[in-house]
Amino acid sequence: MIGVLAFYAFAVVLIVSSLLVITARNPVHSVLFLILAFFNAAGLFVLLGAEFVAMILVIVYVGAVAVLFLFVVMMLDIDFSKLRNGAKQFAPLGGFVGLALLAELIMLYQVWPNPPPLLEPDVLDVDNTKALGNVLYTQYVFPFQVSGLILLVAMIGAIVLTLRTRGGVLRQRVGAQVERSEADSVEIQNVSVGTGVSNV
Amino acid sequence: MDGFSWIVLSPIKQEIFLSLVGMLLLLVGAFRGKTSVGFIVTAVVVAACGAIAGILSGDWTPIDTLSGMLIVDGFSEWMKVLILSGIVVSLLLSVSWLRENNLLKFEYPILVLFSGVGMLFMVSANNLLSLYVSLELSSLCLYVLAAINRDHLLSSEAGLKYFILGALSSGLLLFGISLVYGYSGTLSYVGISSFLETAESMPYGIMVGMIFMLAGLAFKISAVPFHMWTPDVYHGAPTPVTALFAIVPKVAAFGLIIRLLVGPFAMLAQESAQIIMVISVGSMLVGAFAGLVQNNIKRLLAYSSIANMGYAMLGLLPNVPEGIAGTIIYLTIYMVMVAGVFGILMSLKRNGQSIETISDFAGLSKTSPFMAYAMTALLFSMSGIPPMAGFFGKFFVFQAAIAGGYMVVAVIGVLTSVVAAYYYLRLIKVMFFDESAGNVDENTSLSRHFVTVGALVFVLIFTLLPNHLLQRAIEAATSLFS
Question: Comparing C-alpha atoms, which of B293, B142, B296, B109 is closest to residue B219?
């Protein structure tokens, strides 16, 4: 009973907050609602018994992605109301496509024969962090490794597209410092009275 | 390495080798900086050639590995040879152009290599999960490459446009995959096809999932109605990157589509044929008619590639080995022709500036006769005039479509190829009969010249020795059905 209540509470807040993400006027509010949506989705995962996915959702999406969004929204000076005006002229088309997709999904749901059994680890037997670990490096080692390559490429790409070497940056060069000898850094001037240093 | 992991890993040893080479060269580049670019390009080309040799000398018996994530068979091996040759050719073409335009960064060949690795995985994917990750690996490199000229407005625009539309298409693909997974309960190709074979009622969910997946993949091969990004990206990206886009990724995406249609969705062949038919006819029409009004040669080639993807799809309609073989031959010949055309395009410069509009080609037959005649041969081939190679490509796919009973589509294909011939022939007319637009610079790059001459020779003598290629294509196609 409590589980059902919790499910509906999480689900309703999730749907309402994700609607607010796209309708809120202030982009900072949008991001905050996005964070709320992530927390509620995490709650739904906990109800399913998938606590690892729930934690990952909170750590990765709330902790990193949403905070990054917040920074971007605050740092970039984008006039969202102007963007939104441009989007309005596509609203009828977008609405039509959305409705068509919704109708298709509803029809699909009705002809869903009986969902085939999906693989489920026994929740009482193995906790799901361990269950995921068991398959991540065995059955799914290929996608796991290729994901690593994708992240490497993303890193290379970000560097290629943004790194600029600027001139006039003062950097410590240890080698040059050690190499410095007295001969090329100190010069003894014989200053005669009343003339000052002449050849500097 | 113990025997067990060798058994698991040896079918994909080329891919592992190439990714290790890529990472090693990344270190070299990061420590040595700009001075190491030449070495890195050479190393990538040599490594890719080594991988081609490894594949050609290897064993092509079908084997699946890494718990069914990948399958290695005649089809995937032949597609890998095509992809790696495309990578090598596009690198040979691009180096001197990039150097002349001060764009040669050491990351360029490494990104090309990693996208190649992704494409090699794409054609041997045997599970929806490995399909997705390998597709993303190759696409992500291509997004970066499109924007590599980051100080240029058009290039940045091309990169951004490609990235956003690519992300959208990945979304469609993932949505389709989730539907297929939800209704069949498995991600592996074998599991899906056996589920469909034993299904009692019409599996609508899987059908809708398949449609979404095809929509997502149609983005990657720039087929109508998902072609909008192609002219802008081709136009905006630096010419060597455009050449890469035109030569390689489409072959890989086609490999992916072919394996999907023949493997897991074989039971839905009737439904998928309808979609392929619409996409193919649309691509042929848009490619032919929109190409008529283009003045920029890169945009023209973009529309030409859209039309060519339509023709290549004709071979997929009947879902028989002969049709697939036709598509493979078509793609092979198309790759060679496009490589030759881009070789010429990058060689032609006037006062150090690249030639981009069609009017710049005026009178080329007097100022640079070799280029003009080579271009003419390649364009004749692209418009499908016998005895050039392009004719045979079209011949095989049309034959496959007619044999499969798709007469109307084949007739539309022939008619649109007549329309498309107009813009190829117009370019020839401009080169030979128009008032010269001034001298062009000497071509200084030997490797570019090599590629152009190679493509020219292939196009001209294909009619004499077609059997080897035909044999390979048919073997590759039949290995899919065994």
Answer: B142
Shared domain for A95 and A60, answered yes or no, is yes
Contact criterion met (CB below 8 Å) for B397 and B326: yes
**Same domain for B214 and B319?**
no
Give the predicted TM-score (pTM) of the model. Answer: 0.90
- Asked if A140's CB is within 8 angstroms of B129's CB, the reply is yes
User: Residue type at A78?
Assistant: I
pLDDT of residue B4: 67
Q: Out of A112, A149, A159, whose CB is closest to B114?
A: A149
Specify the CATH number for the domain of residue A53: 1.20.120.1200
- B338 and B282 in a common domain: yes
3-class DSSP state of B250: helix
The pLDDT of residue B120 is above 80: yes
Same domain assignment for residues B368 and B475? yes
Segments of chain A with pLDDT less than 50: none
Chain A interface mutation, best of B21, B28, B34, B133, highest count of A Cβ atoms under 10 Å? B133
Q: For chain B, what is the radius of gyration of the CA atoms? A: 22
**Statement to judge: residues B185 and B314 lie in one domain:** no
Torsion of CA B5, B10, B12, B14, to 10 degrees: 130
Quote the minimal CA–CA distance from B462 to chain A in Å: 38
Same domain, B252 and B382: no
Residues A128 and A73 in one domain: no
Q: Which residues of A touch B134 (CB under 8 A)?
A: 146
Residues A40 and A113 in one domain: yes
Structural domain count, chain A: 2
Residues A50 and A97 in one domain: yes
Whether the CA torsion A121, A126, A129, A134 is positive or negative: it is: negative
In this predicted model, what pLDDT tens digit does every residue of A87-139 receive, in sequence order?
778 888 989 999 998 998 888 877 766 666 666 656 667 777 888 888 888 88
Q: Are residues B285 and B194 in the same domain?
A: no
What is the least distance, in Å, from the CA of A161 to any CA of chain B? Answer: 6
Range of the domain at B412: 268-482
Residue B146 and residue A138: Cα distance in Å, rounded?
A: 36
Q: At what angle do helices B74-100 and B239-247 cross, to 10 degrees?
A: 170
Q: Which of B235, B264, B293 is the last residue of a domain?
A: B264
The answer to whether B287 and B306 are in contact (CB under 8 A) is yes
The encoded tokens of residue A71 equal 């920074």
- Please report which confidence band the pLDDT of residue B465 belongs to, taking 50, 70 and 90 as the band edges: confident
pLDDT, position A200:
56
CB contact (8 A) between residue A150 and residue B107: no
CB B339 within 8 A of CB B451: yes
Of B130, B185, B204, the CB nearest to A142: B130
Residues 67-126 of A with CB under 8 A from B: 104, 107-108, 111-113, 115-118
Rounded Cα distance between B387 and B457, Å, is 13
Same domain? B196 vs B285: no
Is there a single domain that holds both residue B399 and residue B286? yes
